[in-house]
């Protein structure tokens, strides 16, 4: 009688195979409640800041805006100011309620149209209109003044002798403040009293011209 051999079996059995494939135990992940709480606080803080900005952007204040150029040392006028409503950004703009005080003061620097006025832009006294200064009126012809000359500009006042003479042109006032500009070439400038008489004398004979100094504002 023929007998068949049984295949050899693993002595370890099924339990041995499972033990070989068994992985090392993995420790549970450590939870960090402090970091989670911090993340929540950051999210809430950002949302609160955004809400405050949106709410504050709706706050409006009444401020003073300059609508006409005011030169350094010139006094503010009512015509040069207007009321404007702006968002309250925390900047100390001069409130419209103080416009009465503004027109009693002088510009500390040249202020261009569209500027919102702050306290440091005004001073109580002007060196340009104080002792040692004189206002001089000029009647200038085309070619004796630049186009677009405006109140508050700085100019050189130049003596331009007639062609019949041999005298050369020379500067009488190196940086005169334009106090006003009228029609038909009428210009008022502020110069030192030391040269005011000379400027008036040459102006009466049409021998004065002015050159604008844009960089001297």
UniProtKB/TrEMBL annotation:
Residues 1-13 have a biased composition (Polar residues). The chain crosses the membrane at residues 34-55. The keyword Transmembrane helix applies. Keywords: Membrane, Transmembrane, Transmembrane helix. Residues 1-26 are annotated as: Disordered. The lineage of its organism: Bacteria, Bacillati, Actinomycetota, Actinomycetes, Streptosporangiales. It comes from Nonomuraea endophytica. This is SAF domain-containing protein. It comes from the Bacteria.
């Amino acid at each position: 009688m023929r007998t068949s051999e049984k295949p050899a079996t693993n002595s370890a059995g099924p339990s041995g195979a499972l033990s070989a494939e068994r992985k090392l135990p993995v420790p549970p992940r450590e939870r960090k409640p402090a970091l989670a709480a911090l993340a929540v606080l950051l999210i809430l803080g950002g949302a609160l800041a955004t809400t405050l900005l949106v709410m504050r952007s709706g706050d409006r204040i009444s401020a003073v805006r300059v609508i006409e150029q005011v030169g350094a040392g010139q006094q503010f006028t009512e015509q040069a100011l207007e009321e404007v409503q702006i968002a309250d950004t925390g900047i100390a703009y001069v409130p419209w309620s103080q416009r009465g005080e503004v027109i009693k003061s002088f510009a500390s620097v040249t202020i261009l149209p569209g500027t919102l006025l702050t306290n440091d832009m005004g001073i109580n006294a002007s060196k340009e209109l104080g002792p040692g200064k004189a206002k001089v009126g000029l009647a200038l012809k085309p070619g004796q003044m630049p186009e677009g000359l405006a109140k508050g500009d700085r100019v050189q006042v130049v003596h331009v002798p007639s062609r019949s003479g041999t005298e050369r042109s020379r500067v009488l006032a190196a940086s005169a403040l334009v106090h006003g500009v009228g029609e038909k070439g009428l210009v008022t400038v502020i110069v030192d009293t030391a040269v005011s008489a000379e400027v008036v004398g040459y102006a009466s004979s049409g021998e004065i011209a002015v050159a604008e100094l844009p960089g001297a504002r």
